[in-house]
Queue: 4 jobs
Job 1
Amino acid sequence: MRIIVKMKFGAHLYGTATSDSDLDYKGIFLPTKEQLLLGCVPKSHNYSTGKDESRNTRNDIDIELYSFHYFIKLACDGQTVAMDMLHAPESMILMKSKIWDKIVKNKQKFYTNNHK
């Protein structure tokens, strides 16, 4: 899987992290050629070290990676998660590609006052 961007998210992005905060990451991936050809591109991949039946602890990590296609849809729809990712400070970015730089450079194209 080719990663376009991976960043810290949640409390760390919003500046509200405490010593008890878990780590949250968001990112975007490019689907494989096979996924594209077969029309089976997943919206996202989720990974968590926490247990479903209990609240995360400071030792837990949650990762959500959106497919490129789904992220573009989220951004076009003005979804908060996409806008937060587009405006994340460079200090929150753990890895990025040139594709991400181009997306961020053109982020204003996702802005609209044309509400549904």
Job 2
Amino acid sequence: EMRHLPNALDDVDHLGTDWLVETVLDYEEAGHRWRAARLIDGGRDEWLFVGLDRGPAFNLRWVKLDPAIELTGYPPDILERVVDGERVHYRLVRRGSATATARGDTSQTLAGSLLPQSSARCRWWLFEAPGPRCLIVEEWGGAYRVLAGEKIDPAGVEFLPGS
């Protein structure tokens, strides 16, 4: 069962930092739904994916845009990324195509291609490396974005509904 999902202008507390939810993307693919929230704290800009993994568990992935991996076409089955000086190999575990609807401030999202309350199709790929590390790749109208981060423990996250 899904607990409270972040909404635009909610706050998310993660490891003692309060993040403002500025943008929410709701995804739907063949009856499976998940949500991504763009989180702002000062100059930091990160993303929280809720429920991307199918199944009953409440699963979270905390990621941020990774400009080091540039894709101009369909991603390969293995992506390599340097993390703290170590070469990490990420293996493709799932991919699909979803419809996403945006809410909140979308001006900094997806090169502005998705307006508030509008929907668009996106292709997505999920890559995992040993441990909690993951990459989420999305393709929106020919433009790719790569988000790098990790699976996190829901116990370390609190959703605080906005006013």
Job 3
Amino acid sequence: MMVSHYTMQQQLRKIEYTLSQEERMYKILEVYMNLFPVLDAYLLRYSPLGFLGEGIIALTSNGMTHIRELRDDIRTLPIIYSAINDRQAKFCSGIEYFKQTNSKYIFPSKINSLLVVPISFGSFVFGYICSSEFEKGTEFDDDALSLLTLFGKNAGEILLNSSSSDSNILSKREFEVMQRIAMGESTKEIADSMEISELTVKQYIKSSIKKLGAKNRTHAVAELFRNGIIK
């Protein structure tokens, strides 16, 4: 794998100036496919509520397609569950592929390899990229997987930071708390994940509600969705 950390950051930095959130997601997949020896890319959002993976868009040789019909409990897909739980890129092939996936997921029967790259912000994983077709002779060693893990972290920062900067209302920490609430996490889960006290979480929620002119946390999350700040 020839890509360097510097090249990856330079390519991703250009995405920050992209206007819409959907275009940012498309550009992230485009950069991913340009930098790494993959021939397809499926972007899915992840919700810890029900361990749900939901399709957003895919980039293949046929262009971009929406994959909103794709929904799965990622606990039935060990490699995806492991990648999200460990916040690290994972790869499997051959017999391990058949052990770690189920037949109804994304891929046709000719596919026997899978790469999973979690998209995260801090300790918060809110999506992942899957690839199932690769350039001939491609192998993913520990160094390659580490670089892919870093790609997922950088992509996560771009998606969340660009979303929060669109509003110019909430701080980064306030936005992260509200994003986690929108994903179904409890106050205790947020506190544990962000390594802050429950009181601090409640303070972030209170200040977010005030800044958004909302009546309560549910109303605040609804406002964030309505304004396109949370997708």
Job 4
Amino acid sequence: IDKPDNRYISESKIDKTISAKVILNSINKSKNIIVINKGELNGITKEMGVISSKGVVGIIKNITDNYSSIVSLLNTDLKINAILKNSSTIGSISWNGLDPRIVQLNDIPLSSSIKVGDTIVTGGMSFYFPKGIPIGRIEDYNNTSLEGYYSIDVSIFSDFSSLSNIYILHRTDDDEIKFLLNE
């Protein structure tokens, strides 16, 4: 079983990862959901980040005692904070509902220096994922936007057509961060 790279887990407030098996997964809808064989009895709670050995998978949406559903990265409702690894330029990842191998990197200004092959990682600006978890590489971009931002396609590292083992990130600082957000 491929395990996630511990370098990006040890640098954050990740207490542990909980491994799970994918039992249902779709990639051909606009709002794809993944179901796994772990739930509340295994320590899973809503809004935990989920990764594969290759990178970001999604966020826990609902839980029962023994199962959980995940809002997949391939869900048009999900936006994930992301950065260009080499420059720390902040943007967000979303999916346009078309190709299950390609997501879009948004909000990167035309003044930023980018190139095909640049690595995109999580930005750490949310409590779902720590900074630095791999997402993908720039596949293509267009700089003809009138709004002053690139249009960027990112080839994702995780292969959603063959997901079987995933890992749920259990953060030790969840309650503290959620307390501050709810003040």
